[in-house]
Amino acid sequence: MDYIQQLIERYPSLEIVKKEISASFDIIANSYSKGGKLLIAGNGGSASDAEHIAGELMKTFAKKRNLPESFIAEIGAVDSEIAQYLVPRLQPGLPAIALSGHASLNTACINDIDGNITFAQQVYGYGNEGDVLLGISTSGNSKNVLYAAGVAKAKKLKIIALSGGSGGALKKFADVSIIVPETETFKIQELHLPVYHCLCQMLENHFF
Questions:
Q1: Kind plus residue range of the DSSP H or E element containing 134
Q2: pLDDT single digits (tens) 168-201
Q3: For position 206, what pLDDT does the model report?
Q4: What are the boundaries of each domain within the chain?
Q5: Domain 3-207 is of which CATH architecture?
Q6: What is the C-alpha to C-alpha distance for residues 64 and 59, in angstroms, rounded to an integer?
Q7: Residues in a beta bridge with 159
Q8: In the chain, is it the N or the C terminus that has fewer CB atoms within a 10 Å radius of its CB?
Q9: Using one digit for the tens of pLDDT, what is the confidence trace for 66-98?
Q10: Are the CB atoms for 146 and 170 separated by under 8 Å?
Q11: What DSSP string describes 141-203?
């Protein structure tokens, strides 16, 4: 199924980022296939998007996800009663971490160091070569996202930018920049959601 083509049919203005969406899928799928993870950074509405993406990837999105038979056997060997509860309910996930979601760590960074260090600190701590950073910034100029991208580049993570307008400074760090064709913040955000839903659906279909 051509999910990108379906996306373009619903949102014709996104035709101009079709190649970038496909390239972003390839980067994330390649990372997952090698045991990597996705780190997602964004502020405000984009922080909500980061949480949304993590939620779609870490459990069933649109397609039933079955546990591997090997895990079913392993959890059964641990405890049959626990297995009886878990096997019909537990869903395989694609590892994704929304960096905005760690209130204690982020507020400690704000209080003890500097507010713009929060995402960079997490990328330094969580990120490994082969992982992917998805930086969401409607302007492409959010300082904390830019600093996170700098750390990601130094640690040899792949970087995907999701932005609007001109793409801002973030595009110079990114391996792929999905720059949706809007300039007002809320309109950019309105196009970000169908883009990342498309990516989540493609990834789920690929792995499950």
A1: strand 132-136
A2: 999 999 999 999 999 999 999 999 999 999 999 9
A3: 97
A4: 3-207
A5: 3-Layer(aba) Sandwich (3.40)
A6: 9
A7: 133
A8: N
A9: 999 999 999 999 999 999 999 999 999 999 999
A10: yes
A11: --HHHHHHHHHHHHTT-EEEEEEETT-TGGGGT-SEEEEES--SHHHHHHHHHHHHHHHHHHH
